Amino acid sequence: MTSSFMSSLRQDWGVHAQRPFFRLVRLFVDRIFHGSGGEAGGEDLDFSLGLVLAILALPGGFYSIFLFDKYSSLLEWIRGQHNFDPLAAALPDEYFFIVLSMVVTGTVAVWRWDSIFPDRRDYANLVPLPISTRIIFLANLAAIVFLTLVLALDVNAASAMLFPLVVSGSQQALGYVAQFAAIHAMVIVLASIFSFFAVFATVGVLMFSLPYTVFRRISLYLRGLIIVCLLTLLSTSFAVPSLVDRLPRTPHSPIRFLPSVWFLGLCQTLRGEADPSLAMLGRIAILGSLCVIFVAIAAYALSYRRCFTRIPENLDITPETNRWYSSWPFSVLDLTVLRSPFQRAGYRFAMRTLLRSEHHGLVLGGFLSLGIVIASQVLFFTFNGKIDDAGRVPSAALLSIPFILSYCILVGLRFVFDIPTELRANWIFRLSLDKTVHECIPLARKVLLTFVLPWVFAAVFPVSAYLWGWTAALLHTALITIWSALLAGILLVRFRKVPFACSYPPFRDSAIVVVLSYILGFLAFVVLTSRLEYWALLDPALMLLFVPIIFGTWYGLHRFQQETVDIDKQLIFEEKQSIAFEVLDLDRWS
Amino acid sequence: MLEARELTKCFASLPAVKDVSFCLAPGQVLGCLGPNGSGKSTTVKMLTGLLEPTRGRVLFNGEDIQKDLVSYRKCLGYVPEEANLYPYLSGREYLEMVGILRGMPRSRLEGKIDTLLDLFSLHSHRHSSIASYSKGMRQRILLIAALMDNPEVLIFDEPLSGLDVISALVLKNLIKTLGQQARAIFYCSHVLEVVEQVCSHLLILRKGNVIACDTTAAIQKNIEHRSLERTFMHLVEEVDAEKITRDIVSVMNAA
Q1: pLDDT at position A187, please?
Q2: Degrees (nearest 5) of the Cα angle A497, A499, A500?
Q3: Chain B environment of A312 (Cβ under 8 Å)
């Protein structure tokens, strides 16, 4: 009986799946997942769907597991906390999960920004076929809704199961656990949906209200801004829960404008724990979600009509852009630092790629945003007295701000150097460069320092001089400059490719090592250095400490480069996986 | 069967195509020629319904195609200038999707796809993703997609682009054969020799205007040039190719 029902269900689904509408929905789901830019050459990272879904579900799962320590009744008993109220203690964690779900989903929406709307390829392939543009519109909308639901469920799947078990595991009543789990799951999934549709609505409204060329131009900056907002939202998870506790006494607190707080209000309302101010925010969460979904769909409909149906007209108009202004800095650099034809050509190529490629700009923007968020947090805590800032000498925290920005920019740039752009076009480098004699490291170092030194000299030095006097400003500026140059050297160890002209390195094998080294690097470059600088400002004799560090690092890099065998210095255009077994081919030598 | 009446398309008030009119009857292969920027692609886009004319109409069997684009496109096979395909689909998956979207019955679709893939020498690559295909292979996928539903009207925009000698020869013969089978074919190309070989009629555009539209033989006879290349150069009168060649060589040789 059951098997016949299932087989008839399968048959029905098979028939439906062959209908044009469902085939289109499938196509759009694939397209949004795979992206619109991946042409021949495989320039998009080839992640499988399962891997992406697993990665997205990981943060919530890990965080839930870490919370076992906090909520374990045995550990509470050992700690002597006999009146531990898990529900009250869960508020900050509940807020964190809401923020996490919003940030992860929002980031995915920003990442897939260009794929949400049908593009030129869709137009070229689908419009000449006997299907109406209305069907294309509806199929794409269905794909977006479907993916939003899948994303919202996936991002929150692990935490929706684990967190309620962790928090209410000590409770006897199963109904209590089920109720806690249901409310938690509903709120975080709704927060995810809100976040995705908020990004979607932003794209739609801008596409509809701005000329297409203007939209394309600001798209990158806007995505960067959204990433900054999302990271800022993430950083609120440390401060906001304590402010939520004070909300009944401070009803005009600015935290009531945070969407994540609305969802916390909704959660507390559903649990019957909300005071009137939180209950009102809970109602705003529902209204806000409905509004965002409505605006997103309306903007999508209008911008679809405005942009998609006019794609062929846009194709035939190629506006000329006047770029005369960008040539004089290159001329100045040609005369001063770019010593060879390769450096001149490579520098122009690298700078233009960084400034014009959306993909690269977005990744670099992500690193920069991270730097800005960390720096602003440090600044926030400094001025709120959480980090000691006493006396004439600036605190280590304040001194660390330019180091944070410099570190994030340099690491971000080094990271994007590995992301290829239009691999099919790298034949020109293959054809014109000598594999054994190349200047990739000097070129890459100059590009890296171009993004750091100008603002260090133009902003950090005058601001430091104004705040702390000339001596501190000189030391501070010199230290950031030297440290940035050394970090650039370390990041470029064994670098032997033209930036953006080599295939992807095997990230998957080394991702954990890379992340760990970034964290350790941050501790050494930012935390340790700013602390040493602080001590040096207190006691100038300690400045001598920097001399052996600088020369030791420089000498180590120099020796390493000299001792690298020639074959490892050769210019490459393809990153290959290291193979487990290698034939030594000893016959060749006999 | 297909008629263009005073087609005009303006972009930002600048006319890209002005008052283009012609008829394409069943059995005719109409070659469209013109230098870059003459309005060929815009004309093709209006014929396929991708662009709506600013003025004028495209009629299919006497009906304005804009009234019922879906029905018109059911009878249309189109090979665009650029093989802009979904790189993550395999060739077979792409054709299957096109077949489903064209409303072809599953039973007919499966057989046709496999046979056509085999005939276009793509059968062994049918499960590879399009990202790994060469330009010629992508072009052949586009050709199969245009032909598989047996359309009455075929519009080719530079169909030989990237094709090898054998495939190009097959396609030229195919166009002639389909023309003889009463299909209406619009063939847009820069390759004059091919147009001369396959097209029964010619439409020559210059700066958005029709400067000649007749049978290939009649145009050549009127201009009294034996080759189509000479005829085309005579009509277009845009450049002195020999002078440009001399100038390029002199720039190359300059110190």
Answers
A1: 92
A2: 110
A3: 45, 50-51
What angle, 0 to 180 degrees and rounded to 10, lies between the N-to-C axes of helices A174-209 and A86-111?
Answer: 30
Residues whose CB is less than 8 angstroms from the CB of residue A105 and which lie 6 or more positions away in sequence, other chains included: A151, A152, A155, A192, A193, A195, A196
For residue A421, is pLDDT > 50?
yes
Answer whether B217 touches A (CB < 8 Å). no
- Provide the number of structural domains found in chain A: 2
Same domain, A401 and A280: no
Indicate yes or no: CB of B132 within 8 angstroms of CB of A40. Answer: yes
Nearest-CA neighbor of A240 among A104, A92, A98? A92
Chain A residue closest to B93 (CA)? A27
φ and ψ at residue B116, rounded to 5 degrees? -65, -40
* A210-227 residue pLDDT tens: 887 788 778 878 888 888
Range of the domain at A191: 87-312
Q: DSSP strand E in A359-469: where?
A: none
Among candidates B50, B78, B98 on the partner chain, residue whose Cβ is nearest the Cβ of A312: B50
| Residue B10 forms contact with A (CB below 8 Å) | no
Report yes or no: B201 and B31 within 8 Å, Cβ to Cβ.
yes
Distance from CA of B226 to the nearest CA of A (A): 35
pLDDT of residue B184: 93
Opening angle at CA A412, ends A408 and A418, nearest 5: 160
The pLDDT assigned to B238 comes to 60
Range with the lowest mean pLDDT among A66-70, A395-399, B66-70, B71-75?
A66-70
Chain A residues in contact with B50 (beta carbon < 8 A) = 123, 127-128, 312
| Domains and their CATH numbers in chain B | 1-75+152-226 (3.40.50.300), 83-150 (no CATH)
DSSP string, A264-312: HHHHHHHTT---HHHHHHHHHHHHHHHHHHHHHHHHHHHHHHHHGGGHH
Q: What is the pTM of this model?
A: 0.69
Q: Give me the count of residues in chain A.
A: 590
Task: Work out how many CB contacts closer than 8 A connect A with B.
Answer: 78
The model's pLDDT over A281-314, given as tens digits with 9 standing for 90+, comes to: 899 999 999 999 999 999 888 888 777 777 776 6
Among A20, A34, A316, select the one facing B101 at the smallest CB separation.
A20
- What's the whole-number average pLDDT of chain A? 81
Q: Indicate if A303 and A360 belong to the same structural domain.
A: no
- Convert the pLDDT of each residue in A46-90 to its tens digit: 555 666 777 777 777 777 777 776 676 666 666 666 666 677 778
pLDDT band at B113 (very low <50, low <70, confident <90, very high): very high
Q: What is the mean pLDDT of chain B?
A: 86
Based on the domain organization, do A553 and A415 belong to the same domain? yes
Q: From the CA of B56, how many Å to the nearest CA of chain A?
A: 17
Flag whether A208 is in a domain.
Answer: yes
The answer to which of A117-121, A277-281, B183-187, B197-201 has the lowest mean pLDDT is: A117-121
Residues of A in contact with B71 (CB under 8 A): 130
Confidence of residue A319 (pLDDT cuts 50, 70, 90): very low
B17, B7 contact by CB (below 8 A): yes
- Looking at the partner chain, which of B11, B45, B131 has a beta carbon nearest the beta carbon of A317? B11
B76 contacts in A (CB within 8 Å)? 128, 130
d(Cα A178, Cα A174) in Å, to the nearest integer?
6
